[in-house]
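Record 1 of the preview.
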Amino acid sequence: MKWLLLIMGILILVLLLLIFTKVRVYIDLKRVQKNDLIHIKLSAWYGLFHYTFKVPVIKKDDDSAAIVVKQEQGIKEEEKKEEMKKITPEDLRNEFADMKEILHHIIGFHRIVRHFTGKVQVKKFAWHSMVGTKNAAHTGMLTGVCWALKGSIIGLLTTYFNFRIMPSYSITPDFHRWQANTTISCILQFRIGQAMVTGIKLLRYWKGGKANFKSRKLARLSGDSNKQSF
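->
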């Protein structure tokens, strides 16, 4: 009995230690011309545990164009078949009900994720880019657009994440040659317990909040065989 209590006590201690453990995520992304490089490092317990891995970047394969064409043709054929079917008032009501159901699930999912991201601390955020064309006027316009776009993205990120520092970002124009280079370096920190709670909430929400679609197309996603049979 004493050994059982001791084992349970150790397990509870380890679980508590794991829940309150802070994890730092170091993300480095570089794009120079056509070369992409993404490094992600996980660190915990002041560097006693760390793991670094390189994210593989998928590049576009020119040989896949034929497959894309076949898929698009298939979609067009399905659309042609659907155009021949009659649309009844009941079909319209089902479509509107499905849109409302999808919106409801997106809002619920968004609330759970945003609650977690609000607890994620951003210790560092640097985003520097260099853009350019061979035309000075076009380069100036492109630089202005990039400034506006980058400012909007960072503004959106600051509403979702807990920034502990001011983000650093810049756009450097190159008026003499084509340039599309960017580097992003950031450090995120959160507790493992927060991630576990969020994962449990998402799992419960996914299982308990299964969508009840009305239309036959989307009913397949909810596994309602009654709507698929007619």
